[in-house]
Write a structure and sequence with these properties.
- The protein has 355 residues and is α/β, with parallel strands linked by helices.
- Helices cover 47% and strands 14% of the residues.
- It is built from 15 helices and 8 strands.
- It has an 8-stranded parallel β-sheet with strand order 1-2-3-4-5-6-7-8.
- The longest helix is centred in the N-terminal third of the chain and has 19 residues.
- The relative contact order is 0.14.
- The chain binds zinc ion.
């Protein structure tokens, strides 16, 4: 991965589609899985954390998924994401460095000029040992440093609520998102899984409060669960976007509703293949082509750019083209839809916060 990051402008010219002058938009990337293994290695050894592997390459292999090492979403969240990545990316130092490295690396390596990074600040404060405002300010400092260094980059942070959290804990996250909206917190998301006690209908007024205060709404839904979850999400929250939403392909009425409401789906192709949410390229093609021909707007994202081998954003487009899953003209459309659907709303649309 480091090799990709060293490419200069001459290499950029040869890369055509992916290195277009306007750059690429990324609307669905998680903080914990956007930090590279080498940054995690650095953080762990700076802080003195014990790691599951003592040798660097074994550590990388332990974290990363690839076609030879797939895991279901639940397995990965429970075995790797929450116990290892969340822990290593906790605390002020780790958050500032992690966000700075992931934003600046995305611009340098993939010409990503619009990046919405998402994370739950309560998953990065060592279970309350670190003051939540300090954790959030560290996230924002990391982002601002990257924005100052790379003026073509626009970035914002989405706060993830957690389906396994109590309503009260999620309310605190929304209040913090509102408090830091002017500093670059642009929206809220619902993540994680909880088929038992979580209901979108319990969040109608909280989401309305977020919206009234300028935040945009997205939610993970229709990735591994059934379409009932998507129906409830749409009927209760009227989200601006939905993360994944691939299960809608099985429900014509739902597709019609998504298209009518103009809800944009954040598609994450390689993530869905690695977690077996999609069986193979054939199913991926069926989903994307069905959405495209049913008037559903969607965009291409990484979800976990550093935790899946060869899954940086430009590689995802390459993959879709090489495997004839989408045409170049269709991918151009998805790029346009992504730029239109961003939650980043700055007075100067061509620049970042500081221009
Ligand atoms: Zn996601």
């Amino acid at each position: 991965m480091e090799g990709i990051r060293k490419n200069g402008s001459s290499a950029r010219a040869k890369r055509g589609f992916f290195f277009r002058p306007a750059g690429l938009p990324e609307l669905h990337a998680h903080l914990g899985s956007s930090i590279s293994p080498q940054t995690y290695w650095h953080i762990a050894h700076t802080e003195g954390y014990k790691l599951p592997k003592r040798e660097y390459h074994e550590f990388v292999d332990h974290l990363i998924l690839d076609p030879g090492r797939k895991m279901t979403l639940k397995e990965y969240l429970d075995k790797i994401y929450h116990p290892i990545l969340d822990r290593l990316s906790s605390g002020a130092m780790a958050l500032e460095k992690g966000i700075y490295d992931s934003l600046s690396g995305a611009y340098r390596s993939n010409n990503i000029t619009l990046l919405e990074l998402r994370g739950n600040p309560m998953k990065h404060n060592h279970d309350g040992e670190v003051d939540l405002d300090h954790a959030i300010m560290a996230m924002l400092r990391g982002m601002e440093k990257a924005l100052l260094e790379y003026p073509r980059l626009r970035a914002g942070i989405i706060f993830c609520l957690d389906r396994q959290f109590t309503h009260e804990k999620n309310r605190i996250i929304v209040d913090k998102a509102i408090k830091y909206h002017r500093r670059g917190v642009i929206g809220i998301d619902f993540s994680n899984y909880n088929p038992h006690t979580f209901h979108f209908r319990d969040y109608v007024s909280l989401v309305e409060k977020a919206r009234k205060n300028g935040l945009k709404i997205t939610s993970h839904s229709g990735e591994t669960d059934d379409t009932n979850d998507m129906w409830e999400c749409i009927d209760s929250l009227k989200p601006d976007r939905i993360g994944h939403g691939i299960k809608a392909v099985h429900d014509k009425k739902l597709m019609k509703k998504i298209a009518e409401l103009g809800i944009v789906l954040e598609i994450c192709p390689l993530s869905n293949l690695m977690t077996r949410a999609l069986k193979d390229n054939r199913e991926l093609k069926h989903v994307l082509q069905t959405f495209y021909h049913n008037g559903i707007k969607f965009c291409i994202n990484t979800d976990w750019p550093e935790m899946i081998r060869d899954a940086h954003l430009s590689k995802q487009y390459e993959y879709l083209l090489k495997n004839k899953i989408m045409t170049e003209a269709q991918l151009e459309k998805t790029v346009t839809w992504a730029f239109e659907a961003t939650f980043i709303n700055l007075p100067n649309k061509n620049g970042n916060l500081y221009l």
